[in-house]
Amino acid sequence: MGWYIKRSTKITQLDCLEDGPAKYHVEYTIRNTMTDEESKTLPHYITGIRSEFPDSHGTSFEKIVFMPPAGGTMSDFEVTGNGADPVADSLNYRLIYTTITQVQPESEVTYSFDETPTASEKPDVTYVKQCPV
Question: How many CA atoms lie within 13 A of 79 on its CB side?
Answer without folding.
Answer: 15
